[in-house]
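Lab notebook, bench 4. Still working through the backlog of constructs that have no structural model yet. Next entry is a single chain of 421 residues. Request: give me the structure tokens for it.
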Amino acid sequence: MDTIASLFSFITTPVSWVIVQFHSVYGALFGEDTGWAWGLSIVSLVILIRICLIPLFVKQIKATRAMQTLQPEMKKIQERYKNDKQRQSEEMMKLYKETGTNPLSSCLPILAQSPFFFALYHVLNGIATGKTIGVINDDLLASARKAHIFGAPLAAKFTDSADKVSQLGATLVDVRVVTAVMIVLMSASQFYTQRQLMTKNVDTTVKTPFMQQQKMLMYVFPVMFAVFGINFPVGVLVYWLTTNVWTMGQQMYVIHNNPTPGSKAQAAYLDRLTKRVTQHGKVRGRGEKAIVKAIVAKGRDRNEHERKFINGLSKANLAAQPDGTVINSEGAVATVTEDGTQAGGAPRRQQPKRQSKSQRQSGAQKHSDEPTSLQKSDEPEDAKPAAAKKPAPKSAGQGRSKAQSGQRKGGPQRPKSPSKK
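Model written out:
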């Protein structure tokens, strides 16, 4: 670990400078040699770093959702070229390029945070060994060695011996109890964060190996934190626990306000949004408008939760517009709802109900009994009532217009052949 931390020594001086600046503020409030001053300095360092990483976190969310969307296509490529790994990799890269997706984007916050983590470890390790590092001089080094968090020195580890702990002015029991509690909290926060992501903010309509991989990580990451945590100084445990709590809170905010389409979190969010919009008659905030705009743009590709949202608006005589606003359905463009009706437009033409076989037969029999204008009457001309006969002047060729069966109309007639006996 010391070798890896030394590779990030270029950032050790900036990290130590930030800690010293925060320590000067908290030292004036709680005392320069207290654990509160040094502990809160580390917490403030985490908060500052995570605020700077918010743009990368946004990219991580977009990349993760894009990867979830591409899972079906990736699975098809794997099955199609399962015997040709090179072609499979080429097709994968082509898919990433066409969709503008980068698989490494989901790891950007962790990768960007790693230099700060190892630099802090290097600083705390220097405090434990009594070496000045960065901008931490001898006076600050002595103050940091005196700082304790609930009886455990900042530079103490779970695996330290009793002699080394006593040199830092603490007991082995205090160090191991504090570090054990912090390791458990660190692993539990990591597990809850991953579990919250899998149970609430994952598209349940897509079953892919990516989801199985995420479920596996939900159990692997806490174990990794527990194994590596026993070798971390108390100050590093404070740093990592603060990072996990920040990530958990940040993810809860995203799940509550911008959930993944098709997830349980989206169903809960759209239910809340439906109540707010129907109550106030409008969409408030750019975030809500962006979500409504995305739902309208999907058209027939909307999922079940989004169709339910559109139907809920139509029942309240409202209609979502392409720009993300909501207006009265009387002046809105017709929107096809889930049951096939049109919200905010002219009603659809109703199709005739399908009749049973017996109904069709009885209807056909009824119509067959009634003469129509297209049918010729079989009654002789003399049998018709006189009132129905209307005299009409006969033209010169009218007598010959009614040709008998088998005869030509006009011209010489073909002689009948004698019948064969």
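Notes after review: Residues 380 and 386 are 12 Å apart (CA to CA). Strands lie at 148-149, 152-153, 318-320, 326-328, 335-336, 342-343. Flag for follow-up if needed.
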